Give the backbone structure.
Amino acid sequence: MKIEKVEVLVSSPDRNFVTLRITTDDGLVGLGDGTLNGRELAVASYLENHVAALLIGRDAHQIEDTWQYLYRGAYWRRGPVTMAAIAAVDVALWDIKAKAANMPLYQLLGGASRTGVRAYGHASGLDVPELFDSIRKHQALGYKAIRIQTGVPGLGSVYGVASSPTVGGKRYDYEPARRTALPVEETWDTAAYLRHVPTVFEAVRNEFGPELTLLHDGHHRMTPIQAAKLGKSLEPYDLFWLEDCTPAENQEALRLVRQHTVTPLAIGEIFNTVWDYQTLITEQLIDYVRSAVTHTGGISALKKILEFAAQYQIKSGIHGPTDISPVGMAAAMHLDLAIHNFGIQEYMQHGDATNEVFIQSFSFEDGYLHPGEQAGLGVTYNDEAASKFEYQGAYLPVNRLKDGTVHDW
Ligand code: CS2
Ligand code: MG
């Protein structure tokens, strides 16, 4: 089964997506997601100019050899652009292999280890009343696990809180990348944030009780000692996890956080290979691996990372915001269903325009996702719909402290 055609499809329904479509000489089609929010065209160019021609004529069944060929053959290794490009190829080939076997992809990954994939959604509010409203909306959608993000008194828009006006009567879901010529700049104050967050969780627990599974994303904005302080101050509210509590390029920084708090920690959505996790996993400095299939070199690579993590009682918490396309989400769900050390799956619901471009077979019911029983990933790409949504450059915000110093966003 030879690779005959390789297409890089860039479309912008609701937001920008990069999709790879591979077609074999016997007409099988596989899709892969190469979306990298704010830097999409870098991945599209990497695929178009440096990968596509290398794939033509290769045996589509050789997923592992193709992965190693693209990883080691490039000479220059790792990094978000390279690994998103390799991920797009890897997932497209898994899609093809599962279609050739006439099975849903999870069957090739070991079959189902559970009946469904527990998901969490994103509740947010500029203030606590709006947050409560958002929590109730997510409970009405069936979510049993909910991430909590709010504004911070004295600050303007901050990460995680939809600041755009309501659209069609419902608050537009939070898309951080703004279609502006320059990145939007936001102002940050960690001290104000550290004072405010525990009061928010106190209010949420008082309003919604102890059962509701709650998560929070620190989004890389604290130092290790600040992260330790927040983890400790949130212990009474029994979070499922505190995410990205501190930048983790220096993995050893998490030793300090771990010394001070038993709040579970999740890290890794901006990582792109197992090497980013090595100390975090072997010293059990985290409880959940946050990478997305799309950013980590695909199903082949993320499955290996999660098998490594399983030896240290660390579970999956695969990244699933709207800048992971429905193709990337479907790949995650198939992996979630099959692996033993599944933790939870992030699931921010895509918009109507996105769902017009990507026709999906997965389901979400009573808080659980399921990838469906269609052969392959279970996603098809609607070229006609996609052609309506031209690419528009978009940038993630840049964060600055009040004195103007650039800070992690
Ligand atoms: C966030 C992401 O979902 C999350 O946990 O960290 O939404 C992140 O902000 C976006 O992927 C950035 O594009
Ligand atoms: Mg995050």
